[in-house]
Amino acid sequence: xxxxxxxxxxxxxxxxRKKRVxxxxxxxxxxxxxxxxxxxxxxxxxxxxxxxSVKYNSxxxxxxxxxxxxxxxxxxxxxxxAPEIRINGKVADQIARYNxxxxxxxxxxxxxxxxxxxxxxxxxxxxxxxxxxxDYKELDDGNTGSKK
Length: 148
What we know:
tt1808, chain A; six-stranded mixed beta sheet; 3 helices; 24% helix; globular
């Protein structure tokens, strides 16, 4: 993390966007989660995107992080919030809106303090909470990440 002498604003390097970005509390959560997913869960940085654009009802939105399978199907949407932001129904609605377009297998919401993860249950046709986030190998098990 460094200070940009022109603006005196602290920045952090985003390995997915391949540039320095302002270090806000939400950005800190996003960058820590990217590194954790890569180092602890085996997600290749080349198959992750931050600030991933989606269009819904003619409006543009940005998913904080999207993880893709090797066949480039979106498999996980991760919504990051600053630590002081409560994870609530409004945040769940936000990630659900993104998922109406991407139709992924896993949804994750985190504020760096609390993390919730859900997996699409094909037999029940709904998302169910899961206790742990899948390793990349589990996501990319030969199936596309998208729910059918």
